[in-house]
Design brief:
Layout: E1 3-4, H1 5-14, E2 20-22, E3 29-30, E4 32-34, E5 44-47, H2 60-65, E6 70-73, E7 83-85, H3 89-100, E8 109-114, H4 119-132, E9 137-140, E10 144-146, E11 151-153, H5 161-173, E12 178-182, H6 185-189, E13 200-203, H7 211-214, H8 217-229, E14 238-241, H9 245-253, E15 258-262, E16 269-277, E17 280-287, E18 293-297, H10 302-315, H11 321-329, E19 339-342, E20 348-352, H12 357-369, E21 375-379, H13 389-400, E22 403-406, H14 416-429, E23 435-437, H15 441-451, E24 457-461, E25 468-471, E26 474-477, H16 480-490
Parallel strand pairs: 4-5, 5-6, 6-7, 8-12, 8-13, 9-12, 13-14, 14-15, 15-16, 20-24, 21-22, 21-24, 22-23
Antiparallel strand pairs: 1-3, 2-7, 9-10, 10-11, 16-17, 17-18, 19-20, 25-26
Helix pairs in contact: 3-5, 4-10, 4-11, 12-13, 13-14, 15-16
Length: 495
């Protein structure tokens, strides 16, 4: 897949965003699109994005040395390469990339999931259903990226649009018929999904998060809403959580295009009964115009009932019911999402990504329902993130857990002791439940496991599958699951 540089000029001109074009070097064939100069290969279009900490224009010499064929930039440059100048590179990057890679989203069933909590698990359920239906499916998510053949660790939830389009092209090349994608509010707002059109946009819920970026909940919601208003294909069929205030707004905004799903509200799809335990969840789903559907899933916890319901609501009618049943039954363990580890003495540990008050509440409530003994909660909060969540996290943990251990979670450029103090303030505001501060995360996790008695449940939350701790600009290798497994082995257990 490739296009002539002149074709890209015409595309930008048709968009009404062409400021000027410099044809030095002729009309090269563009075979790749990159925004990271380190990824430039011969034939690539190097796109100069200005970010918070760096300016892509500064890396043009490196891109030229590595074989860049042309430039997409925001100011005229004298680099001896063909170039297109536009007001904003991000505004055209998606469409340009889509053109170079053969418009791959037009060849796939595009399923997009947005919301605060539940996105990753919902995408895993969706992909499992599609695969059960015989539709090979790629995945772009927070945890992994899959091209339908191989998986790689995800770098960010929604990468730059040139990376998105390259990944979609890989899926098409590998015989995929569908792509399931987590769509972050940052990615939606910054235009990283330009060049994509979604057939099935899905909304899980909205709770306070990223308000350091979005200013307030309304701006946060409007960013999420872009999945439906800007990036959905005409005639799309989406789904939204009718138990959520913002989900109901989407159902009202797009009444002809959306299915509502709910546990507590009247909606197109409802769960009429469910049971959840350590071995999984059973549930009955009632949908208008369809017979009742009985499902079993290895996923545990009440909040996973919503995630399964969301996926089934979005895909019912697109695949056979048998694929829905089998896909839900065969969904794999989602790394870092209520990931279960059995301790040698009969206690249990769950690792989860929950890092907002609502997510932590859901996870601890699910663990409490499975816990005959004490519930021990281990968590921290990231630096440079919405600070009002810190005391709120403390209050949630104090209300639901018997022992709270406050620790470090990617403090970045903040003092981890100060972050912990803000969390402890919330613990104390909620009555001062038993709590300890152990800033060393590995030590905190090992301490919680050592304390746990038969019947106790330890919940280690905040980082999920992440493999690093970030402090003062340095990433140190660290993973919660590896820490738990190491402790189990040192205690004489097998894992």
């Amino acid at each position: 897949m490739s296009v002539n540089f002149s074709s890209l000029i015409e595309l930008v001109r048709e968009m009404g965003l062409l400021r000027e074009a410099e044809g030095a070097g002729g009309n090269p064939r563009i075979t790749d699109v990159v925004s990271d100069s380190r990824s430039v290969r011969p034939g690539a279009l190097f796109c100069c994005i200005r970010g918070e900490r760096s300016d892509g224009h500064d890396y043009i010499p490196m891109a030229r040395e590595l074989g860049a064929a042309a430039l997409l930039c925001e100011r005229p440059v004298d680099a001896g390469l063909p170039s297109v100048v536009v007001p904003s590179v991000r505004e055209v990057l998606g469409e340009v990339s889509a053109a170079v890679y053969g418009n791959p989203s037009e060849k796939l069933l595009m399923v997009g999931v947005t919301g605060t909590n539940g996105k990753s698990t919902t995408t895993y359920v969706l992909r499992s259903i599609l695969n059960a239906a015989g539709i090979r499916s790629g995945l772009l998510g927070t945890i992994v990226e899959s091209d339908g053949v191989k998986e790689r660790d995800a770098d960010r939830t929604t990468p730059e649009s040139c990376v998105v389009q390259r990944r979609l092209a890989e899926m098409v090349r590998n015989g995929c018929g569908a792509c399931v994608m987590e769509t972050s509010s940052h990615g939606l707002f910054l235009g990283r999904l330009r060049g994509c059109r979604f057939d099935v946009p899905l909304f899980t819920n909205l709770n306070p998060e990223h308000l350091d970026f979005h200013k307030d909940m309304e701006h946060y919601f409007q960013a999420k809403r872009l999945l439906f208003s800007r990036y959905a294909r005409p005639g799309f069929e989406g789904a939204a959580n009718a138990d959520d205030l913002y989900g109901r707004r989407l159902l009202e905004d797009f009444p002809e295009s959306m299915r509502g799903f709910a546990l507590a509200s009247d909606a197109f799809a409802r769960v009429t009964e469910f049971r959840t335990g350590l071995e999984g969840t059973s549930m009955t789903v009632s949908m208008r115009g369809f017979p009742d559907l009985r499902l079993r899933s290895p996923l545990v916890g009440n909040f996973n009932v919503w995630n399964v319901l969301a996926a089934v609501t979005a895909l019912r009618g697109r695949v056979e019911d048998e694929a829905l049943v089998r896909g839900v039954a065969e969904v794999p363990q989602v790394p870092g999402r209520l990931e279960r580890h059995s301790l040698p003495n009969g206690a249990c540990c769950f690792i989860d990504f929950a890092h907002t008050p609502e997510a932590l509440k859901n996870v601890l409530a699910a663990a409490r329902a499975l816990c005959p003994g004490r519930l021990i909660s281990v968590f921290g909060h990231g630096g440079g993130r919405y600070s009002l969540n810190r005391p709120a996290l403390g209050r949630v943990a104090a209300d639901l857990a018997d022992l709270v251990i406050v620790t470090m979670d990617n403090p970045r450029d903040e003092d981890p002791a100060e972050i912990a103090a803000e969390i402890v303030r919330g613990v104390q505001e909620s009555g001062g439940a038993r709590h300890r501060v152990i800033l060393d995360r590995r030590e905190a996790v090992r301490t919680a496991l050592s304390i746990a008695a038969p019947g106790d449940v330890v919940v280690v939350s905040g980082k999920g599958p992440e493999r690093y701790l970030e402090q003062a600009g340095v990433r140190t290798p660290y993973n919660d699951a590896e820490t738990v497994d190491s402790w189990i082995r040192s205690s004489g257990g097998d894992h």
